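Changelog note: in this version the structure field was regenerated for every chain. One regenerated record is shown below for reference.
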Amino acid sequence: MKNLKFEDLPNAVELILEKLNMLQSEINSLNENFQPKELIELMSREETANFFQISYPTLNNWTKNGILTGYRVGNRIYYKRSEIESQVQKII
C-alpha cells in the first residue's frame, strides 16, 4: 500500500467512491439474475417407514435393492420426499 499525502486524499476518496459504486451496480445485477435453488425436503427413516406403513427392516431392504435411495447426513439416513412421491406414483 502506498503512502498518501494530505493533498492526495480527495483523489483517493473519489477513487474509492467510484469502485464502491461499481461494486454496488455489480451486486444489483447479480441480485436481479439470482434464482434460488429449490429446497430439498428430507424425511427421516421413521417418517419414511410411517409414510409407507412398513417396518425398518423392510425400509432397509428397499434401500439395499435400490427401490429408495438413502442419503447419509452424519450418522443418520434420510430420504428425499420427491423421490418417495415418485416411487408412490410408480406403484400406483
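Spot check on this record: DSSP finds four helices and three strands in the chain. Strands lie at 42-44, 70-73, 76-80.
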